[in-house]
Amino acid sequence: MSQTNILLEAGTNELEIVEFHLEEAADTPEGAPYRGYYGVNVAKVLEIIRMPKVTELPEVQHRSVLGAFNLRSHIIPLVDLSLWLGKRRAEGTEPPKVIVTEFNNVTTAFMVSGVNRIHRISWESVEPPNRYVAAVSNNSITGVVQLEGRIVFLLDLEKIVADLNPQLGLRLDHAVDWSANTRYRALIADDSGLIREMLKDLMQKANFEVEAVNNGREAWDRLAELKAKGEQEGRPITDYVQVLVSDIEMPSMDGHNLCKRVKEDNYLRGIPVILFSSLITDKLRHKGMAVGADDQISKPEVTHLAKRALALIEGRG
C-alpha cells in the first residue's frame, strides 16, 4: 500500500499538521527576537498564500482582525495571530505568509511569520497543555508536541474564530420542545474545556444525563470500566450509556480511532457513536463512515446533535 493510501485511512490515530512560526519582538532594544512554533491540522487548511492586499473593515471585534481580502471572488477576513496571542510581532527577513482555513463552514485567514513544513504524527505524542500554557495563550492551545527538538503548540482555531464571531458559538434552539419521559445517558469526549461545558449544559437541557471527559483515551478507559461492570452483571452496555458523542481532534486518542475501537468491540459496538466536529465536511465525511460512525454532525449544529442522538437511541430501542 502506498503512503498516499495510508494517509487517507481513518482510525489510525494519526494526523498531519502544518508547522509555522511567529517572530516575537524582544522586550528590550538589545534583546533578540523570539521565534515560537505552532501547528494546525492540515484538514483545516485550504491553502497557504503570500500576503494579499488587505482592505480595512469599518468595525472589528478585536484589533488582531487586520481587515479582509478577495480570494477568487470570496471575501475572507484576515487575523494577525501574533496580535491575537498578545505578542508584539517582529518584522522578519521574509514577508509574512497567510494560512487560509475552512472549518464549521467558515473561511478565515491567519497571518504568520513563516510556514515550515508538514508533519505526520500520532495523537499519542500530543500532550494536553498544562494550566499555565493554557492561561498565557488565552486558552487558544489544544495540544503540545515535540518535533525535531522544537516544542510546537497546536492552536485552537475554533476558539479564536468563535471568540471573534460570538454568533458562531454553540446554541440550542429553545423553540424545540425537549420534554421527554425517558432521560438518556450520554458520554461526551472533547478536549476543549469551553466546548465540553457548553455541550454538557446544552445536552442536559435536552434531557440528557451527561458525563464529559477530556479526550478519546479517557472515553475509551471509561467505556472499558463500564464493559467490565456490564459483563460481570450480565447487562448490555446500553444499560449504562445510550450514546457516545466525540470530537475528532483530541490529544492521546482522536475520535476516529475511538469510534473504530468501539465498533470493533463485540460488547461496545451497540452504542450509537456521533462524531461532532468542525472537521465534518463533504470532503472528510468518508473518514467517519470508514470507522463505523452512526452519525456525523458539524459544529455548531448542537440542536441537530441532540435531536439525532435521540433518534439513534429510540431507533435502536
Largest sheet composition: 5 strands, mixed
Tell how many strands the DSSP assignment holds.
Answer: 15
Q: At CATH's second level, what is the architecture of the largest domain?
A: Beta Barrel
Strand content: 25-35%
Average residue-wise pLDDT = 86
Question: Can you say what the CATH homologous superfamily of the largest domain is?
Answer: CheA-289, Domain 4
| Inertia-based shape | elongated
Domain CheW-like: 14-166
Organism: Nitratidesulfovibrio vulgaris (strain DP4) (Desulfovibrio vulgaris)
Modified residues (4-aspartylphosphate): 247
GO biological process, one term: phosphorelay signal transduction system
Tell me what you see in this structure.
Residues 14-166 form the CheW-like domain. There is one protein chain. This protein is α/β, with parallel strands linked by helices. The protein folds into two domains: 14-167, Beta Barrel (OB fold (Dihydrolipoamide Acetyltransferase, E2P)), CATH 2.40.50.180; 170-315, 3-Layer(aba) Sandwich (Rossmann fold), CATH 3.40.50. The protein has helices spanning 3-8, 81-84, 131-136, 157-164, 193-205, 216-233, 255-264, 285-290, 302-316, and strands at residues 14-24, 34-41, 45-50, 65-71, 74-80, 97-103, 106-112, 114-122, 141-147, 150-155, 184-189, 208-213, 243-246, 273-277, 295-298. Helix content is 27%, strand content 32%. The strands form three sheets. A five-stranded mixed sheet has the order 8-1-2-10-9, with no helix packed on it. A five-stranded mixed sheet has the order 3-6-7-5-4. The protein has a five-stranded parallel sheet with strand order 12-11-13-14-15, with helices on both faces. The longest helix is centred in the last third of the chain and has 18 residues, at 216-233.
